[in-house]
Amino acid sequence: MAPLPRPYARADDTEVVRGCIEGDDDAWASLRERFEAEVETIVIRVLDERRFGSIDLREVPSIVDQCFRALQRNDGGPLRLWKGGRLRAYLATVVRHEAEEHAMEDTPLQPLVAHPPTPALMQLDRRATSEEAIRVREAIAKLVPRATAIVRLRLRGLSMNEIAATLGQPVVALQDDLGILAERLATAQRGDSVPAWRGLLDCATVEERVATALRTEDDEDFRAQREIAAATWRSIRDETLVARMPRTPGPLQDALGVAAFVDGSWRGAERTRAEGHLATCGRCVDTVAMLTLDLRALDILRGAQSIRPAAAAASCIATGRFEAGRVLAQAAEGEDSTDISSLLGRLAEVGASLEEGTRQRSNEGSRVISMAALPTDVEAPVVAFEALVAGDPIAAERAIDDHVAKQTVGQRLRLLALAVDEDRTDARGAAEAVLGSPSPDPGLRRDAATILALPTGRGLPRECLAERLRDALPDGVRFLVSR
């Protein structure tokens, strides 16, 4: 006789919430079973932000428990406020607030005397406090509220397309606005820095990005201008991430409003009012931005439930939380009967190398070279990532056989490997074939467009390669979790 299904196993979210409000223990158990992995992931993301990439996984379970207790306060008070829409968006907002409050109370103050900075950091600090950087900061401080909100959303990590969706603005119109803003910041910096600011604000076209990368390699003065712009942007971003802005009265004051705004439940006049308010409230900008990024991470998490021990690691790595992803993958290896956790850990190291702009150490190199046999299909994309980061496109191409190249990530890595060597002439033909195929993957299409923007006889600049590899990392994660 087949066992009876557990209570609420087939119920939708609305029924589960109703049961929780009525005090049904089975409903609470079902809610936790459905959303515990998502709550855990958001807690980890908050700790990673607040602890500057250094987290202790031992404290995560107690904070997760605390978040579920918060949902149960006042007979399920937070759930009583939910009026429909995507429950996961609402819970994500509530959980992030609870986790942030815990982290702020529990995180010790930074020491009054910091560790001596490295020469690289000292140079970065000097650029970020130069006269040019000060003028850029002053220009940003004088922006009108809407432009300030756009800059803040970008500083929080939203792409141009995500900012356009958040503000209810056509992408083309926002691209024009960002272009004007880039010119204003370049004027404040002085010198030829418009291309640098267009890249930082994510409004540069593919052709512009390639031209900027090539010019950076060839023109020392231009490279110096870009370094000033990048150092200034990083400095402002770091300050923005830790600053807690005051909230101004208006829409988006609670978790329900923020969730409804981000998940698209608010429409018409209600949404228009919220979009207008967003331009005047820095705290609301931050809250909306973080929920947008959290939901991006939860989308990856949902597709990784087949590897439950390493699902949070996959989510972190695919959304740029590389150190947290590495720690989680390492912790999951003991519970993982496959090699997926180990491979995810290697992808986290690749992501960290790309983020730092450094090559792998020469003694690490490409794992293809030292192997007696070719990697397995599952390992092949990871090996190709490692080889490209290590500057070995031949090893990367060798790792991706015709079978692996049928997958999106395999096709992308093979195409990029072809384009690195300036002596290879088949990269352009492969890129043209991609653009000529019906409905190519958006990332693959952009890879191909980047290659076709190269002048004849030039290989893919290191900067463009790193950008395309960062963009392909989520595809690498999806490939692993699908195995």
* Strand/helix succession: HHHHHHHHHHHHHHHHHHHHHHHH
Q: Low-confidence spans: pLDDT under 50, at least 5 residues?
A: 108-124, 358-366, 368-372
Q: What is the distance, rounded to the nearest whole angstrom, between the alpha carbons of the first and last residues?
A: 33 Å
Q: Over all CA atoms, what is the radius of gyration?
A: 24 Å
Structural class category: mainly alpha
Average pLDDT rating = 88
Number of continuous helical runs: 24
Described by strand count, sense and barrel closure, the largest sheet is:
none
Compute the number of strand runs. 0
Percent helix, as a range, is 55-70%
Q: What is the 3D form? A: globular
Q: What proportion of the residues form beta strands (DSSP E)?
A: under 5%
Question: How is this structure best summarized?
Answer:
With 483 residues, this protein is an all-alpha fold. The protein has helices at residues 13-21, 25-50, 60-80, 87-106, 119-128, 131-141, 145-155, 160-167, 171-189, 194-200, 206-218, 220-242, 255-262, 268-278, 282-303, 308-318, 322-332, 340-356, 380-389, 393-399, 408-420, 426-436, 442-452, 462-482.
